[in-house]
Amino acid sequence: MALSSLGRMLSESIHTDIVINASDGSIAAHRAVIASRLPLLRAVDKYDISDLKETCHESLLEDIDTMNVLERLQNASLYQLPKLKTSCMRYLVKFGKIYDIRDDFNAFVQ
User: Which InterPro entries match (predicted)?
Assistant: First the structure.
């Protein structure tokens, strides 16, 4: 049911909030879905699409956990995302998670 609803939203352009223009036409899309894809962050940074980069930035702030915090910290550094960097560091320190991922963190720092 949910999958068919999402498919209908895409096929009928329901609640789309961005249009992607390409050489062979354009497509309506949803920023939240696009922003959830990390390879997109590299592209929007490369082509300086600031509003979509900010959407990606906001999306990455939403669900920081021990499984993704180091990857997000690396992305924050690579793509100059200050809020993400602060949130990752706060997560590691405030919640004591730095001890849970001590070996991974040490490898990351090196």
Answer: AtSIBP1-like, SKP1/BTB/POZ_sf
